[in-house]
Amino acid sequence: MVRTMSLLRALLRTARMIRHTPRLADGLPPDDAVLLDAPDGRMAPSLVAAALGDWAPAARLLSEVREGADWESRDRYVARLSSFAYARDDWLSGWLAHAPCDPDALVVKAELEVRRAWASPARAERLREMGPLIDAAADCAPQDPVPWRIALDHARGTHATHTAFEALWERAVRRSAHHYGCHVAALRYLSAQWYGSHGECFDFAEKAAADALPHSLIQALPVHAAFARLLNGEGSSVHQDRIDEAADRAVVLLADYPPAEPWPAEVRNLTAAVLVRRGRWEAALEQFRQIGPYATTFPWSYFSDDPLGRFLDARQGVRHRLASTTPLRTRAARGSAADH
């Protein structure tokens, strides 16, 4: 009897999935239309030119955002250019040969070398060698917070003490009190995975979110803390409540951003991942719809060496979960049948 009931439940779940999964794809781009870490319209021409060995468009772009004090865009563009240079840096070498003291070339070089050092088996030793390069990038652009975000990432890898880290943090926020990248770097240092605790991480994130400017992505900082907590298990009911509150805060913030846009894509991907881990399928599916074609390496690379594949699997899994719990005949379907 028990086996029969189990078989019937399994058959019912399968029937629900077959009936409802296709409908739940509404608003989702097909798998082959999803892009990983797609650049925005300003960044794309610089990457195309760099692939051809031409550094001039990247130089113009970074100069424009530096002169306009658009630090959030500058941080994203530096990160993206350094990621491209990780595999191919001939264009960056040409840029530095032409302008060895260019603050834009230097900050990309600093980010690149720190990335390379993080990937090295001798991480701490390699990172310590990068200190003068980061200092040079900071000295060349005294108002720019991006070298200080790099310095915060660097300090985490070199086992900097809390005192040393706090000194760097003060210098970073002096340049831009509401810089998202610096806040994320500080949060990582304070996480239990590194030199803090889950409580310390949440406290920092929640205070920063409360003090953030309207519509700033810093308001979603608690969802970073939530993700860090989930990587080590859900913890106590107190932490579970903070995780759900962080996800709710992020959902509210992201509603202010247009759907299917590259700029908030990483925070949307992160929020979707937290909602999936918490089993909040309907909210997670809505975030996947808002993400559109813009998958990001973070956070999915924490679960797989194929972040795009992991993103697509998570999206499909959410549809299956929702479909398997939806009655075979929904109220709308029954009403439609009655009309006939």
Describe this structure in words.
This protein is mostly helical. The chain has two domains: 1-33 and 216-328, no CATH class; 43-160, no CATH class. It is 69% helix and 1% strand. It has 19 helices and two strands. The chain has helices at residues 2-20, 44-51, 56-67, 71-87, 90-98, 103-118, 123-129, 131-140, 146-157, 162-175, 180-190, 198-211, 221-231, 237-254, 265-277, 281-291, 297-300, 307-324, 331-339; strands at 35-36, 294-295. Strands 1-2 form a two-stranded parallel sheet. The two termini are 39 Å apart. The model is unreliable at 10-20 and 332-340 (pLDDT under 50).
Please tag this protein with its features.
two-stranded parallel ribbon, mainly alpha, 19 helices, 340 residues, disordered C terminus, globular, 2 domains, 1% strand
